[in-house]
Each structure stands twice: as C-alpha cells, then as structure tokens.
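Summary: Need help interpreting a holo structure output

Steps to reproduce:
1. Submit the protein chain below together with the SMILES for zinc ion.
2. Request a joint structure prediction with the ligand placed.
3. Inspect the structure token block that comes back.

Expected: a single structure record containing both the chain and the bound molecule.
Actual: see attached output.

Input attached:
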Amino acid sequence: MPGMEKLLRGVLRYRNGVRQELIPQFERVRDNPEPTAILFTCMDSRMLPTRFCQTNVGDMFMVRNAGNLIPHSELFCGDSLNTEPAALELACIKNDINHVIVCGHSDCKAMNCLYGIRNVTSHDKDKNPFAAWLAKFGKASLNAFKEVERGSKSPLKFTGETPKHNFEAFIDPDDKFGIEDKLSQVNCLQQLQNISSYGFLKDRLESGRVRLHAMWFDIYAGDVYLFSRQAKRFVEINEETCNDLLKDCEHQKCHPIED
Ligand SMILES: [Zn+2]
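--- attached output ---
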C-alpha cells in the first residue's frame, strides 16, 4: 500500500524545504490572525483551492465535505449536530469574517451520485451514509435543478443574504457542461440560500457584514468561475473579467426580482 509512504516521504520533503518558510508565517499570524474568508468546498482530492486561489497561511478557513453541502437550518434540529453551522459561527461571529464562499467543481463524485439517486426515495444511513447525506442535504438542490433538467431557459431564483437579495441564475447558458455539472452549479447556489437560513447570521447578512459567494472549478480545464449576480451566471475569472467581478462583489446590492 504505497499511500502512506507517499505521505511520509512528503513530510520529509516538507521538513527540508517549505517548513522553514512557513514557521515565520505561523508566528506572524499567531497574535493577529486576519482570515478574510471561509471556503466551503468538496473533499475531492483534485480540489486544491489554496493553489488555484494562491492563498497562504492565515488567509482563509476551509470546510470540506462530500459535495460542499451546508445543511439548511430546518434540517439542523432536535439532537442533530453538524459541522457546517458550527464552522459558520466560528468564522463569521467569533472571527468576524466577511466573506463566505461555496466552491463546487466539475465531475464531482458527490453530485454525480446525487444525480444518480435522484429518484430513490429512502436510504439506509447506517449502511450507506454517503447516499443518505446526499439525499437529505442535497434534496433542495435537486428540487431547484428540476427546471434545468426540464430544459427550461428561464433563470432559477435563489434567496441571497436576505429575501431582498434574491437573485436569478442562468445555469450554463452556453451549454458547455454535462447534466451533472449543471447540477453541481445549482448545488453551489442552493448552499448560499441554505447559509442564509441561519438566524445567528441574520444581522450580519442584513447589514452586509457577511456576504455570500459561489465559486466553481472546472477540473479538466483548470478554470475558476465566480457567480456574478449582475451577469446572473458563473463567469470565468480571468484578466478581462476580474475587475468587473470584484466590483460585483464589492457593490453586491440588492437585485430585486419581480414576482
Ligand atoms: Zn466533489
């Protein structure tokens, strides 16, 4: 089993190289940590956000799970406990972080599985916790996705930071991606709605101290996308789009939707 050998050899290379660069950085942030974002992303081994965002020590918190799901607060009841709301409180309330980012990706095994089990009604959570997790917390994404699957060209509607920040989304309007990847994009946006369901964030979401963003990584092309409320779609982050995307984030005003 070569897996552990690879990791341990990696630790040796780290000790002889990058460790010396990191120690002063750890020291620098010890008494003055200033992370500016919390990133929820998938556990997929190909997802390397610290590389494609070029972030460093102290820059952002990260939470990873299968399918970058954040359970809706309605599902966080009774005796159930989840990491994701705890991480939101730690980041946004205890550490005053302003930006919450949900980052999905193409060829996501969790989203492929969620699509595959979309018509299965019950799951044995003891025998198949993966499917049970996806079915329970991915249900809202599947519901939102139905319009896309039907081939509707109308934009999907999502709740943003508050009901006044509702936004519309055209999913893959250029039809570049497969059906599971379209579900993955819908799933990212659905998580913003789920995050906004937590009462402990309400004041910060209303005042704009906490803002929600959706990113998406196209694994095989290596392209990174950010959802633009203005453009109502995921826009590739590149030299031409970066400034406009930044403005869109900074001036993330309400974009009221007519009912
Ligand atoms: Zn994934």
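--- end attachment ---

Reviewer comment: The chain has two domains: 1-32, 35-251. Confidence is low (pLDDT under 50) at residues 254-259.
Status: needs-info
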